[in-house]
Design a protein that fits this description.
This is mannonate dehydratase. Belongs to the mandelate racemase/muconate lactonizing enzyme family. GalD subfamily. Pathway: Carbohydrate metabolism; pentose and glucuronate interconversion. By secondary structure, the protein is an alpha/beta fold. The chain folds into two domains: 102 residues, 2-Layer Sandwich (Enolase-like, domain 1), CATH 3.30.390.10; 259 residues, TIM Barrel, CATH 3.20.20. It contains 13 helices and 16 strands. β8, α8 and β9 form a beta-alpha-beta unit. α9 packs parallel to α10. The longest helix is centred in the N-terminal third of the chain and has 22 residues. The protein is globular. It binds D-gluconic acid and magnesium ion. The site of D-gluconic acid has 10 residues, from loops.
Length: 403
């Protein structure tokens, strides 16, 4: 059995911050896990270094479920994004090790491929509707079959999901949180126009998605869902905050637009009521923030009972290690829906060489043993950590609002 002899945390910032856990076994096998929690990176790094790594040394790396339970139940303080991201990193690294020892890609250990490849969606954004459509057409021509549309809101200086001119969209900015201003009224006027223009320009053979980023009340979300129905969106995401899971019942009463939620969820308990009551269609919890492959499979198994499908978060703050794990999970899980794909910059891809690939609107994790991702430590060391925050959002009268 492979005994864990060392584990260390590697922090690197090739354009944005990533925290990676590397576990080493006595036979020389190593495994990687993503531990990145955007805007709170060093909290997880310290949780791992101070509290988790000492408990790993000497354990049998093959006992993935036992180690998961040990870190979850054994901590006494259950759940929460920091704890669950740390557990996720250990879990991913252990699956990576098991795959390398078996000589198999992780998806084979999870039951094998349940589909040929994973449908992914990309982002198209622009300050105007015309810019957004232009980008969407470009992505469609690159082969994407599903595209998330976000555009600037007339009358607001900046809007969630829209890049600053000439740059890629990247939410983690400033040395302190930047502030943006929000108006629900203005926003609710522009989104149906965006979707009408998109259907006109792109036709009906491409899936269109939209992220509301928690900014509406349930009844406003119902209005948006209803207004978008003629354009048949694939989903609207995070249309209202989900702390009160029953809020989604109100949205459901008003629209048949499919609902996705859960990128900020960190355990099955965040999603239980939503899934059991069929209040959502897609669950967006990820391998990195929801306890790793082991726990996400449990969430997916519950969701499958209620015809809820997966639609995992995949923004650039999920490192290539998490992306690979998401694809092994997605390829093998019966109720896969779609996977978000926001390509990393070249520096990130160089720090984390990987086997996964994009073809014809879909992605495949590749067939390298384990997760199929490595880390170039020299390159990683060349990109020093730099504190970065997610922005905050206020209403026009200054009230702090959901971001
Ligand atoms: C998405 C997300 C991201 C998040 C970011 C936070 O749907 O891709 O909403 O844009 O805001 O990942 O860390
Ligand atoms: Mg989102």
């Amino acid at each position: 059995m492979p005994i864990i002899t060392a584990a260390r945390v590697i922090v690197t910032s090739p354009g944005r911050n990533f925290v990676t856990l590397q576990i080493v076994c006595d036979d020389g096998t190593t495994g990687l896990g993503d531990a990145t929690l955007n805007g709170r990176e060093l909290a997880v790094a310290s949780y791992l270094e101070e509290h988790v790594v000492p408990c790993l040394i000497g354990r049998d790396a093959h006992r993935i479920e036992d180690i998961w339970q040990y870190l979850y139940k054994g901590a006494y303080w259950r759940r929460g994004p920091v704890t669950m991201t740390a557990i996720a990193a250990v879990d991913m690294a252990l699956w990576d090790i098991k795959g390398k020892i078996a000589g198999l890609p992780v998806y084979q250990l999870l039951g094998g491929a349940a589909r040929n490849s994973c449908l992914v969606y990309c982002h198209a954004n622009g300050t105007t509707i015309a810019d957004t459509i232009e980008t969407a057409i470009r992505h469609r021509d690159e082969g994407y079959r599903a595209i998330r549309l976000q555009c600037g809101v007339p009358g607001l200086a900046a809007t969630y999901g829209v890049a600053k001119p000439g740059r890629r969209y990247e939410p983690a900015d400033g040395d302190l949180p930047s502030e943006s201003v929000w108006s629900t009224e203005k926003y609710l006027r522009v989104v149906p126009e965006l979707f009408a223009a998109a259907r006109e320009a792109l036709g009906w053979d491409v899936h269109l998605l939209h992220d509301v980023h928690h900014r509406l009340t349930p009844i406003e979300a119902g209005r948006l869902g209803k207004d978008l129905e003629p354009y048949r969106p694939f989903w609207i995401e995070d249309s209202t905050p989900a702390e009160n899971q029953d809020a989604f019942r109100l949205i459901r009463q008003h629209t048949v637009t499919p609902l996705a939620v859960g990128e900020v969820f960190n355990s099955i308990w965040d999603a239980k009521h939503l899934i059991e009551n069929q209040l959502i269609d897609y669950i967006r919890a990820t391998v990195v923030h929801a306890g790793g492959i082991t726990h996400l499979r449990r969430i997916a198994a519950l969701a499958d009972l209620y015809q809820v499908r997966t639609g995992c978060h995949g923004a650039t703050d999920l490192s290539p290690v998490a992306m690979a794990a998401a694809l092994h999970f997605g390829l093998s899980v019966p109720n896969f829906g779609i996977q978000e794909h926001m390509p990393h910059n070249e520096e990130t891809d160089a720090v984390f060489p990987h086997a996964y690939r994009f073809t014809d609107g879909t992605m495949h994790p590749g067939d390298a043993p384990g997760l199929g991702v490595s880390i170039d430590e020299d390159r990683a060391a060349a990109h020093a950590y730099k504190r970065a925050y997610l922005p905050v959002n206020r209403l026009e009268d200054g009230t702090l609002w959901s971001w």
